[in-house]
Amino acid sequence: xxxxxxxxxxxxxxxxxxxxxxxxxxxxxxxxxxxxxxxxxxxxxxxxxxxxxxxxxxxxxxxxxxxxxxxxxxxxxxxxxxxxxxxxxxxxxxxxxxxxxxxxxxxxxxxxxxxxxxxxxxxxxxxxxxxxxxxxxxxxxxxxxxxxxxxxxxxxxxxxxxxxxxxxxxxxxxxxxxxxxxxxxxxxxxxxxxxxxxxxxxxxxxxxxxxxxxxxxxxxxxxxxxxxxxxxxxxxxxxxxxxxxxxxxxxxxxxxxxxxxxxxxxxxxxxxxxxx
Length: 276
Prior knowledge:
The chain is mostly helical. The protein has helices spanning 15-27, 31-36, 40-64, 69-90, 96-109, 120-134, 137-146, 149-170, 173-210, 214-240. The chain is 70% helix and 0% strand.
């Protein structure tokens, strides 16, 4: 019988795997097709719950993808130091134009000396303020002359990353809330999808054996095949890391007979039964 594969192992997927699997499953049935098959109400519940999982997943990713605070601090300080040393080195250039540009930039940087020794929030504020000033029209030409345009932007971006890390550290509750939300929404999404999958199986059976509507049966069969392909892909991933179990794959054609396994041949009797 054509049906959507066993789904009990899908709860073993990691958050990213889980969300992307069910997004793929949703995309196997368009809204127009759901309306045509008269399962739009159930399909909409699945779509809505998956959107909630998406929100929880994106929130968790914001936290998980945040660079650790110490690492972000070090990266910003290193770039600030390197930029400052570059300016000082270019101030000693034998090219008058370069030396003059470096002197002007060094003067502009004077109020920001010791930024790396400040508390995190003040450090970030000073670097962002300095980079904004040096990227202004007043100093843009000098920065170009010194060949430090990319370095200045790199420094600014490192301060932005540092700021995000500091915010995440101050809001570690986000990690706990996101994890809880994912834990709650995943089984809801799975249940909503099961309703869709069960309806598709029922529609296929009715079209095949009751209405004998070959076109409708073929259309639903193609959807089920796509879903099974997505589920199999994830189950294979779970199996590779020892987290899942192999599913029972239904035969493509329900009328195809299954060959019985051959009986094992009996072991031959010994020629002389008295000999041990």
